[in-house]
């Protein structure tokens, strides 16, 4: 079944801005120790490298907590900073594409690390009673306290978290309830603005130019998601060539730039209702970063 243009546009725009609404900034956009943007008093978003550092710090906190409770916990295997970069389905980084294609080998490496997770083997090797104690120490399972948050698009999301996982979140973010609610709000705004941004002529014009650019390069795809899907069946060298063309066309047509501009514009329009939650989200992440810098080094 063929997708309508509206369906194509919705899918592409969602991937263009997927990492943007969460407040991930360019690693070169902000001084590392700056707590606010130059233009406003709003808390600044974290860079991607800083987000990774917070994630790594949480693993360290869980490991230390589990050790205090008499268990071994292995921190998740870390990819390099280069390997950990995220683009969604829209990248204008030609150099990265030339080296990694769409990242298939990196994903394979990550999946292999997950399959070889030593925590799984460690837990399975414990006697039944100790295994139950391990689960309780880690996150308390179904007995953990429940957090709830109302989503901007409607409905309620719930999470049970206790044990060392809850302790790590409290150390990083201070107030687990405030963090959960702010995070879920920030991560759930897309349904409120994507349809409007999707219909914006700036986006549709950039997408059309991207498709025309790719066709001239010998890759007749309607959107980056379609090109990326086609790459799944390709050998790495062919994947790499397609990814380079994709990134070059994205750069030349400013598709990613337009997506960022639209995301900023339409999310700002929602700040009257959700600005407090968005600012809380960034403020608590900055708090977590301040603690993380005392625990782990940045990824190389």
Which features characterize this protein?
single chain, mainly alpha, two-stranded antiparallel sheet, 14 helices, about 60% helix, disordered N terminus
Q: Assign the structural class, choosing from mainly alpha, mainly beta, alpha/beta, alpha+beta, or little secondary structure.
A: mainly alpha
Q: What summary fits the major beta sheet?
A: 2 strands, antiparallel
The helix tally amounts to: 14
The radius of gyration computed from the alpha-carbon positions, rounded to a whole number of angstroms, is 21 Å
Unreliable stretches (pLDDT < 50, length at least 5) are 1-23, 28-39
Helix content: 55-70%
- Strand percentage, roughly? under 5%
Order of strands in the sheet with most strands: 1-2
Average of per-residue pLDDT values: 89
Q: Give the SSE string.
A: HHHHHHEEHHHHHHHH
Number of strands: 2
Distance between the termini: 45 Å
């Amino acid at each position: 079944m063929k997708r309508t243009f509206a369906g194509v546009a919705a899918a592409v725009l969602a991937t263009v801005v997927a990492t943007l609404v969460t407040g991930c900034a360019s690693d070169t956009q902000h001084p590392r120790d700056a707590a606010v943007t130059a233009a406003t008093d709003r808390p600044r978003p974290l860079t991607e490298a800083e987000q990774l550092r917070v994630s790594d710090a949480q693993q360290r906190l869980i490991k230390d907590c589990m050790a205090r409770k008499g268990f071994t916990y292995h921190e998740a295997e870390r990819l390099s900073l280069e390997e950990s970069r995220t683009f969604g389905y829209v990248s204008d980084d030609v150099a990265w594409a030339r080296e990694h294609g769409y990242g298939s080998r990196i994903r394979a490496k990550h999946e292999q690390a997950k399959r070889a997770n030593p925590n799984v083997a460690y837990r399975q090797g414990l006697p039944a009673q100790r295994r139950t104690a391990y689960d309780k120490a880690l996150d308390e399972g179904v007995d953990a306290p429940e957090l709830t948050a109302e989503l901007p698009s409607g409905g309620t999301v719930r999470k049970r978290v206790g044990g060392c996982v809850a302790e790590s979140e409290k150390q990083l973010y201070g107030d687990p309830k405030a963090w959960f609610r702010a995070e879920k709000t920030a991560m759930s705004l897309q349904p409120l603005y994507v349809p409007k941004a999707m219909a914006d002529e700036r986006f549709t014009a950039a997408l059309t130019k991207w498709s025309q650019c790719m066709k001239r390069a010998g890759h007749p795809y309607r959107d980056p998601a379609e090109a990326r899907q086609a790459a799944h069946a390709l050998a790495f060298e062919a994947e790499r060539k397609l990814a380079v063309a994709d990134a070059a066309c994205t750069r030349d047509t400013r598709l990613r730039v337009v997506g960022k501009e639209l995301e900023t514009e339409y999310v700002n329009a929602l700040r009257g209702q959700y600005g407090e939650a968005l600012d809380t989200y960034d403020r608590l992440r900055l708090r977590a970063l301040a603690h993380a810098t005392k625990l782990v080094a940045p990824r190389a």
